Amino acid sequence: MLKKSKLHGEFFMQGDIACAEGAIAAGCRFFGGYPITPASEIAERMSYRLPMLDGVFVQFEDEIASITSILGASWAGMKSMTATSGPGWSLMNENIGLGMMMETPCVLINVQRGSPSTGLPTSWGQSDMMQAKWGSHGDYGSISLCPKSPQEFFDLTIVAFNYSEKYRLPVFILTDAIVGHMTEKVIIPPVDELEIIERKYTTKKPGEYLPYKVEKDMVPDFAKAGDGYRYHTTGLTHDERGYPVMTEECQWKCVPRLVEKITKNADNIILLEERDVEDADVVVVAYGITARTVVPAIEAAKKKGIKVGLLRLITVWPFPEKRIKELAQKVKGFVVPELNLGQIVLEVERCSAKYVTTKSITHPGGGIHKIENIVKAIEKVAYE
Amino acid sequence: MKEQKIKISGFGGQGVILSAYIIGKAASIYDKKNASMTQAYGPEARGGACSSQVVISPKEVDYPLVDNADVLIALSQEGYDKFISILKKDGILLYDSDLVENLKHSSKIKSNPIPATRVAEELGNKIVANVVMMGFFTAVAKMVSIEAMKQSIQESVPSKYTELNMRAFDKGYNYIKNLK
């Protein structure tokens, strides 16, 4: 039996460290990683904390080994995690696909910085929003969560582990260098007050159990390694036994379910925060740190008499298209500020194009938007 | 109480980030307000330009960055030059008077010099210069209580240096009396 984390109380804690503590509270006992600014503090904290809890921390030679190790640890029954930034995420993409195909619960943290390539190592960006969705080849459903503060980084890391176990997939947290390196009050409740979802193991007997046979919830049950079950898993298209079957029929059975287990559960996965959205003419759609840095612009626009609300995407993937479509039929338009040259705005446009205009406010990272630029965009959408 | 915004600037290794951490923790955990601390630094481990910022507020902090500061703490000439323009017209400037010598700000700014590094050297270790400055800040700006600051420092420095840090804090805190 793994010892439970005893850490609880009120802390003045950095975002990255809060993430590590959230992972520990969720029961993560394996971390495989390679340090990279601005995510290194997560690895540092895990290297210090995991040995105290009979967990395992390994610093690998690179990010490819890191992602592979957490997939293996998960198959051995551990809750596992890695953390990186854009350049490391690029390297992880291939095995993210493997994790999706094998339906492997684990958590990947991306503390985003200015990109592309080495970009701005110590500065800010939200550059990997689309890479997280489309980075690995092929179709698969995925979940990405965007915390706005150290407290939420703690909370959402637990949610990420819960989703990963419930829906059997690698779950992503896409934060940014500001939140990762921001220090604020973090309240950690006693571990028995947290809602922790554990892995769903089969109740079938060896011989009756099939690794990829799904029943009503679209998610196959695990068998415990070492309990005598015959097991096979692979990145190849596979049947219910987990054996490779390279036919069109098997591809139809195997792949659409990977997408649908997420899209059909979207209402249970999507988390949103709304401020003054109900009677708004203009809705600002933002996520992560941008949902905070945009607040002075929203207040300035309100002073000018514009009814403007904020829709904060806590879950970015699956994209909350239902809510955007509902709002699109009521509002004059959307404003989407992001620390990239326009990524999530494409989704907002896709969902709202039939009804209203959407204005993209871009920024390549390394700083934040000028407040007056956002106010101007809100005015344009409100009056045009 | 309105939001109070503090910017600290200097070189990596001077304790610029730890100082903001100490202020933020004092305000947030011990004075029971809300505080948000952020930081900016380059790829260098030591010696590069470095800054940190704290926003203290009675309510939850939305906007965590400091674009117009109520207080600027300058621990280097470069830090002063870079950030003096974001200090409010009637803001409070605290600076290490041995390290910041070329001043160019208007007389409306409340200017408070202290030779923090020299004071720390006289105490036996210049590494506590930032804590001398924290004491000075506590006395001059009156944004965080002295009890909260002392508790925060005790919780934030290695225990074998607690006593040295407390002496450094007191030196800085009492330095204001010398100005009067």
Please describe the topology of this protein.
The complex is a heterodimer of chains A (384) and B (180).
Chain A: E1 9-14, H1 15-26, E2 28-33, H2 40-49, E3 56-59, H3 63-75, E4 79-84, H4 86-102, E5 106-112, H5 129-134, E6 144-145, H6 150-167, E7 170-176, H7 177-180, E8 183-188, H8 248-263, H9 266-269, E9 272-275, E10 282-286, H10 290-293, H11 295-303, E11 308-313, E12 315-317, H12 321-328, E13 333-337, H13 344-352, E14 357-361, H14 371-383
Helix pairs in contact in A: 1-2, 1-6, 3-4, 11-14, 12-13
Chain B: E1 4-11, H1 16-30, E2 34-41, E3 49-57, E4 69-74, H2 77-83, E5 87-96, E6 110-114, H3 116-123, H4 129-141, H5 146-156, H6 162-179
Parallel strand pairs in B: 1-4, 4-5, 5-6
Antiparallel strand pairs in B: 1-3, 2-3
Structural class of chain B: alpha/beta
The CATH C-level class name of chain B: Alpha Beta
Assembly context of the chains? heterodimer
Total number of strands of chain A: 14
Spatially, the strands of the biggest sheet of chain B line up as: 2-3-1-4-5-6
Description:
- The complex is a heterodimer of chains A (384) and B (180).
- In chain A, strands 3-2-4-5-7-6-12 form a 7-stranded mixed β-sheet, with helices on both faces.
- Chain A has 384 residues and is of the alpha/beta class.
- Chain A has 2 domains: 9-193, 3-Layer(aba) Sandwich (Rossmann fold), CATH 3.40.50.970; 273-383, Rossmann fold.
- The termini of chain A are far apart.
- In chain A, 37% of the residues lie in helices and 19% in strands.
- In chain A, helix 3 (63-75) packs parallel to helix 4 (86-102).
- Chain B is globular and about 40 Å long.
- With 180 residues, chain B is of the alpha/beta class.
- The model of chain B has no long low-confidence stretch (mean pLDDT 94).
- Chain B has helices spanning 16-30, 77-83, 116-123, 129-141, 146-156, 162-179, and strands at 4-11, 34-41, 49-57, 69-74, 87-96, 110-114.
- In chain B, helix 3 crosses helix 4.
- Classes of the chains: A alpha/beta (384), B alpha/beta (180).
- Chains A and B meet through strand 1 and strand 8 of A and helix 1 and strand 2 of B.
